[in-house]
Write a structure and sequence with these properties.
Elements (H helix, E strand, L loop, with lengths): L1 H5 L7 H9 L20 E4 L2 E3 L2 H10 L7 E5 L5 H9 L2 E6 L2 H13 L5 E5 L12 E6 L8 H5 L1 E13 L2 E10 L2 E10 L13
Parallel strand pairs: 3-4, 3-6, 4-5, 6-7
Antiparallel strand pairs: 1-2, 7-8, 8-9
Helix pairs in contact: 2-4
Bound molecules: S-adenosylmethionine.
Length: 204
């Protein structure tokens, strides 16, 4: 997976490649999907949701430009896989999931693996967690109609928000970087995600 799906397709951050090598993806998929755990695709995890394709998890992590000491806010815990990867790349991860059942299952996996620096929160992550910000990095694993204003406001100086934004015909993974009062956007590339449902996302 690391050589064929990630390195060959432009993932070059060594810390991200190591983290992706280390996290046992098969423990984050339902029993009946274990055989396909390292396939180059998203897989169903229940509640109508998916664990993302390995490449997109790595691309988001790389675009967050993590060095190690950061506090990261993650929206869309899903199976908890990307949270476990982020936990190896940053000091602290707060992850929000709107489906309580998925959040509980993700938390159980994370505790079972003895990962100490991930906190799972149930709720609408489209507004972030203003009382816990600012964050050096914010990762969103669901497509928003536009960059949620609240998330941009919770970025620390120099902080990065990586989020898929719905555009005509495709979702575009986009990095937003706070520079003083400005937030500078850079498009990373096309992707496909489930919708971000919530106050600053799509209606359910
Ligand atoms: N990163 C996850 C993983 O590694 O398994 C996969 C995430 S899945 C593609 C997107 C997740 O975002 C879904 O579990 C969905 O329920 C969640 N989601 C959608 N809108 C949300 C919101 N407003 N707040 C929190 N979670 C949300």
């Amino acid at each position: 997976m690391v050589e064929r799906q990630l390195r060959r397709r432009g993932i070059s951050d060594q810390r991200v490649l190591e983290a992706m090598r280390e996290v046992p993806r098969e423990l984050f998929v339902p029993e009946e999907q274990r055989r396909r755990a390292y396939a180059d695709s998203a897989l169903p995890i229940g509640s109508g949701q998916t664990i993302s394709q390995p490449w997109i998890v790595a691309a988001i992590c790389q675009s967050l430009e993590l060095a190690g000491p950061e506090r990261v806010l993650e929206i869309g815990t899903g199976s908890g896989y990307s949270s476990a990867v982020l936990a190896l790349l940053a000091a602290e991860v707060v992850t929000i999931e709107r489906h309580a059942e998925l959040a509980q299952e993700a938390e159980a996996r994370i505790r079972e693996l003895g990962i100490p620096n991930v906190e799972v929160v149930v709720g609408d992550g489209s507004r972030g967690l203003p009382e816990r910000g600012p964050f050096e990095a914010i990762a969103v694993h669901a497509t928003a109609p536009r960059p949620p204003r609240s998330l941009a406001e919770q970025l620390a100086e120099g902080g990065r928000l990586v989020i898929p934004i719905a555009q005509r015909g495709a979702d575009m993974l986009t990095q937003y970087r706070r520079r003083g009062d400005e937030v500078v956007a850079e498009v990373i590339g096309p992707c496909r995600f489930v919708p971000l449902i919530g106050e600053e996302g799509f209606e359910s």
